[in-house]
Amino acid sequence: MANIPKKPVILTIVILTAIILCINFCGKVLPTKEFSQLTDSTYIQFYKKACALNDSKACNELGVIYDLGKGESIDYEQALEYYTKACSLDFGEGCNNLGYMYNKGHGVERYNGKALKLYEKACTLNKMEGCYNLGSMYFHGEGSSENKYKAALYYQKSCNGGIGSGCNDLAYMYAHGLYVSKDVFEAISLYLDACELGEASGCNNLGYMYEMGKNGVQQDDMKAEKYYDVACQLNDIESCNRLGTVYGKKIESIKSEVDVGIARRACGYGNAISCYKLGLYHEEKADDTKAVAYFKKACDMGQSQSCRHLGDIYRK
User: Fold this and answer.
1) How many domains does the chain have?
2) 281 domain-assigned
3) Residue 20 bridge partners (DSSP)
4) 274 inside domain
5) Which residues contact 84 (CB under 8 A, 6 or more apart)?
6) What are the DSSP calls for 214-240, one per residue?
7) Local mean pLDDT, 10-residue blocks, the chain (316 residues)
8) Could you give the CA distance from residue 208 to residue 147 in angstroms, rounded to a whole number?
9) Which residue from 9, 178, 242, 292 has the fewest beta carbons nearer than 10 Å?
10) Which residues on neighbouring strands pair with residue 23, listed in sequence order?
11) Among candidates 55, 82, 54, 56, which has minimal Cα distance to 68?
12) Are 255 and 222 in contact (CB under 8 A)?
């Protein structure tokens, strides 16, 4: 209503911000995972020894192990202990993970004021997910009064640091003039950055802007198709549906094999009217099996004409 930053072998958990109007305001969760799948207890013991020797990365790794039950039973108390130590040793991942626990009430009592400070420390330690989370908290007024100006600053910092959701959310602010001067072309640039960083929402938003052609953006279905396709490949269901709509607009009726191919893609992406048109096409070709299959698919999507058509077929 968006390639991917390299993922370290430790877990950073981040916040999902809200989806606003038809343009996605927030991207997806930005985990920078996963740590090694090794689960041998000896392996864990070596991490414990390293942590006891003030190896901050090992402490954070242990926090992940107990937080997610990787090799040991889930134990939030120990996860909290190890994340706390990692953060005290100035390891940004640990501060961010600890902030998440307090922010979401994950294994501890929810305490957004503490989460805000932990995200701030993570950001100061150049953990960009922490900067993004900090921006999100200021945007929504969690742990402090709402402050869109600070939100924009931290979104910008996280975007500059390779966090696609930061680019996406800042773009949303520019697109709607939220405590920044409205600038549609800056929004497009930032959505493009988000998309190139693998943030599906950024790709979807670009597709939507080009499909709708509003606010000074020239309507362009080819560009809309391009960005919806990228977002769809990033498993964004909304973009897959929008892609089906864009394909569906290309054909009034199916008259050639080229039209059939386009309609099949549109139908496959959830465009019910294209499924209906394929049903009509195959009915005309006397291929009742395919015709009924497409009518049923369209009917299941809520396309009334297909349901009525099926009724007519079975009534005969």
Assistant:
1) 1
2) yes
3) 23
4) yes
5) 94, 98
6) -TTPPP-HHHHHHHHHHHHHTT-HHHH
7) 34 36 44 44 89 97 92 90 98 97 94 97 98 97 95 98 97 94 95 97 96 88 94 92 88 87 89 92 91 94 93 86
8) 28
9) 9
10) 20
11) 82
12) no
Instruction: Tell me the C-alpha distance between 174 and 176, whole Å.
Output: 5
Does residue 20 sit in helix, strand or coil?
Answer: strand
Q: Which residue has 């800042």 as its token pair?
A: 170
Burial of 147 (0-12, 13-18, 19+ CB in 10 A): middle
Host domain of residue 283: 253-316
- Enter the tokens of residue 197: 């960083």
What does DSSP assign to residue 264?
Answer: H
The pLDDT, as a whole number, for residue 282 is 92
Which amino acid type is present at position 184? V
Give the span between the Cα atoms of 210 and 135, in whole angstroms.
28
Contact 156, 132 (CB under 8 A): no
The set of residues, in sequence order, having a beta carbon less than 8 Å from that of 13 and lying 6+ positions away, is 29, 31, 96, 97, 100
Q: Which residue has the tokens 């309609």?
A: 263
Does any domain span residue 263?
yes
In a domain, 67, yes or no: no
Residue 151: partners with Cβ closer than 8 Å, 6 or more residues away: 135, 136, 138, 139, 169, 173, 179
Q: Which residue carries 């993922």 as its tokens?
A: 7
